[in-house]
Design brief:
By secondary structure, the chain is an alpha+beta fold. The chain is built from seven helices and ten strands. 26% of the residues lie in helices and 21% in strands. It is elongated and about 60 Å long. It binds a DNA duplex through α5. Its EC number is 3.2.2.23, 4.2.99.18.
DNA sequence: ATGTGGCCCTGCGAGC
DNA sequence: TGCTCGCAGGGCCACA
């Protein structure tokens, strides 16, 4: 589920129920996710007002009026769902606690925000809001792909020294923030670049072409996610949207959709992850 | 430094 | 039905 567009969709879905609201109670149902929760997390959240919900890469940042920010990563299987919508537009009841509901935030407006994560690759930490950029999880991350720091010059310089396949390089969060396995496949498909090609061997022109494609793919996915916010609000928390738009990801043996290509999507493994691409038109 | 592989964990679908 | 296997949207960490 969660690459940058999904995390942004979750952030937008949570904002109306959390921003400006006090966390009246936090149920922390286990000691850890990927790492132990920060010391006294429940106590540090209780009574704090949420001043803003932000996103950096695949992290949701919950700014609090205590001077701390709750840093949340959804890992592979993390979900955050809202119940008890105070406006009464969706449903009034809170669902019974489900398996893997690890943290529940009770908001002053009656809403509950439940963090569920079966695989527990997710994470939470608290950091000083003023120094969040120096937080060990945030500091090493590369530029936001939808921001001004991500541009042709930056990407060309960064990739020019990378001896690794372009697929692996774009997946590296130090290079660019927020891309995951799905969107890297989609980006390279749209750019018609073979994912096995070494990053440093790509021409400047081809690298430059990646910048707007990355922006477009992510923007389109965010727009599609935004249109499904109503679904998101429903109890099951299912998102279902942009996967209908995947051209390469999970399309092994499907015909390539590039006009006149006639190729077939294949699946290979790169650094332990599946890569889907068309060997005929991606060069 | 850069690059690669292992590993954390649960759930699900395919195949037998 | 029920088992086993492979795979899953991520990323830290140890090691070459």
């Amino acid at each position: 589920m969660p690459e940058l567009p999904e995390v942004e969709t979750v952030r937008r879905g949570l904002a109306p129920s959390m921003e400006g609201q006090v966390i009246t109670r936090a149920d922390v149902n286990r000691p850890d996710l990927r790492w132990p929760f920060p010391e006294n997390m429940a106590a540090r959240l209780t009574g704090a007002k949420v001043t803003a919900l932000r996103r950096r890469s695949k992290y949701i940042l919950v700014d609090l009026d205590t001077g701390e920010t709750l840093i949340i990563h959804l890992g592979m299987s993390g979900r955050m769902t809202v119940s008890g919508d105070p406006l009464g537009q969706f449903h009034h009841d809170h669902p019974a606690p489900a398996k893997h509901d690890h943290v529940v935030f009770h908001m002053g407006n009656g809403a509950r925000v439940t963090f569920n994560d079966a695989r527990r690759f997710g994470a939470m930490d608290l950091g000083d809001t003023a120094q969040l950029g120096d937080h060990w999880l945030i500091k090493p991350i590369g530029p936001e792909p939808l921001g001004n720091d991500f541009n042709e010059t930056y990407l060309a310089n960064t990739l020019s020294t990378r001896n690794t396949p372009i697929k692996t390089a774009l997946l590296d969060q130090h290079v660019v923030a927020g891309l995951g396995n799905i969107y890297v496949c989609e980006v390279l498909y749209r750019a018609r670049i073979n994912p096995t090609r070494k990053a440093k061997d790509l021409s400047k022109k081809r690298v430059a072409s990646l910048v707007p494609i990355i922006r477009d793919v992510l923007s389109e996915a965010i727009a599609a996610g935004g249109s499904s916010l109503k679904d998101y609000r429903q109890a099951d928390g299912e998102l279902g949207y942009f996967q209908h738009g995947f051209q390469a990801y999970d399309r092994e043996n499907d015909p390539c959709q590039t006009p006149e290509c006639g190729g077939t999507i294949v699946r290979i493994t790169q650094s332990g992850r599946s890569t889907f691409y068309c060997p005929k038109c991606q060069r």
